[in-house]
Automatic annotation (TrEMBL):
Protein name: Acyl dehydratase
Domain MaoC-like, first and last residues per copy: 8-118
Transmembrane segments: none
Listed Gene3D superfamilies: Hotdog Thioesterase
Length: 152
C-alpha cells in the first residue's frame, strides 16, 4: 500500500491479527526475562486462590505481543522503509489474560502525518481481545515513525 493510499484510510480498521496463544511457558519465560515473578503470573496453585482463578499474563506481555500482531495484520507500505516504535499516547489494561487464552489485535489507523526528511508519523488504535471474553483486554494508541528513505 502506498502512503497516499494509506492516508485515505485514516479512521478505518485495517487489520485483524491471527490468534496467539498465551500459555504458561510463555508467561514463565516473560517472567524470567523481566524479573517479574509475582505469583499471579507464575504460581498456578496460589493464583487459583485469587479472584482470577488461574495465572494471568503480565500486562506488559500482552502489550509486547502487539509487535507480532502488527506484523501479522497491518498493511505493508510501499516503498519499503524502516519503522520504529515512538511510544504510546494511551495504554489501558482492561481485563486479565488467563494462562492458555488466545488473543488477537484489531488495528485502526488513527492518523497519518508527513514530517520533514521523508518521515511519516503513524498512530494506530490497537484493541486486543481474548477469545470468548466479553470485553477487550487492552486498548492503546500506538505511535510509530516510518523512515521512507532507509532500505528495509
Amino acid at each position: 500500500m502506498t502512503l497516499d493510499e494509506l492516508k485515505t484510510r485514516a479512521g478505518e480498521e485495517l487489520g485483524v491479527s491471527r490468534w496467539f496463544t498465551i500459555d504458561q511457558p510463555l508467561i514463565d519465560a516473560f517472567a524470567e526475562l523481566t524479573g517479574d515473578h509475582q505469583f499471579i503470573h507464575t504460581d498456578p496453585a496460589r493464583a487459583a486462590q485469587t479472584p482470577f482463578g488461574s495465572t494471568i499474563a503480565h500486562g506488559f506481555l500482552t502489550l509486547s505481543m502487539l509487535s507480532a500482531m502488527a506484523q501479522d495484520a497491518q498493511p505493508r507500505l510501499d516503498p519499503a522503509g524502516m519503522g520504529v516504535n515512538y511510544g504510546f499516547d494511551r495504554i489501558r489494561f482492561l481485563a486479565p489474560v488467563p494462562s492458555g487464552a488466545r488473543i488477537r489485535a484489531r488495528f485502526t489507523l488513527a492518523e497519518v502525518r508527513e514530517l520533514p526528511n521523508r518521515v511519516v508519523a503513524l498512530a494506530w488504535d490497537a484493541t486486543v481481545e481474548a477469545e470468548g471474553a466479553a470485553r477487550p483486554v487492552l486498548a492503546a494508541r500506538w505511535l510509530l515513525r516510518r523512515y521512507t528513505d532507509v532500505a528495509a
